[in-house]
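Please fill in the sequence for the structure shown.

STRUCTURE ENCODING:
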């Protein structure tokens, strides 16, 4: 009589769930690493009795449509603070204001122009005004009103 050897069962480790765990860990670390700002280095700054702070100059520039709804032809009204200026003079006036405001240590202009644009203004008119600031390297910010829900 022949006695057969039993096949020895080898121990197996189920690793299918390990793939899921590794995938979730990888996702966690990828998301966590994008939330951290790598460009910031936390340091303790030295103390000083006096400090100088660079102040930016804010210049309001309002563009509105004149003669809206009347029989006359509509025209573009451009105002710097309260003074009306022609579009052709806008480049020179903004360059003069940029020079008055000065530049930062990084070479950027300290002049910020706050654009107050009429909601019915054509997109091309808005782009034309913004292009003047872009050519001069002036930061332009668009002012908006808060909408009520």
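FILLED IN BY: designer on duty
SEQUENCE:
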């Amino acid at each position: 009589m022949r006695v057969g050897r039993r096949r020895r069962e080898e121990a197996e480790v189920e690793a299918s769930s390990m793939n899921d765990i590794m995938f979730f860990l990888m996702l966690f670390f990828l998301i966590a690493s994008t939330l951290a700002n790598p460009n910031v280095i936390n340091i303790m700054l030295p103390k000083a009795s006096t400090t100088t702070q660079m102040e930016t100059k804010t210049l309001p520039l309002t563009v509105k449509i004149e003669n809206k709804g009347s029989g006359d032809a509509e025209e573009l009204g451009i105002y710097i603070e309260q003074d009306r200026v022609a579009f052709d003079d806008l480049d020179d006036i903004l360059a003069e204001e940029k020079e008055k405001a000065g530049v930062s240590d990084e070479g950027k202009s300290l002049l910020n122009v706050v654009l107050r644009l009429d909601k019915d203004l054509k997109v091309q008119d808005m782009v034309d005004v913004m292009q003047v600031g872009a050519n001069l390297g002036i930061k332009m910010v668009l002012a908006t009103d808060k909408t009520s829900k």
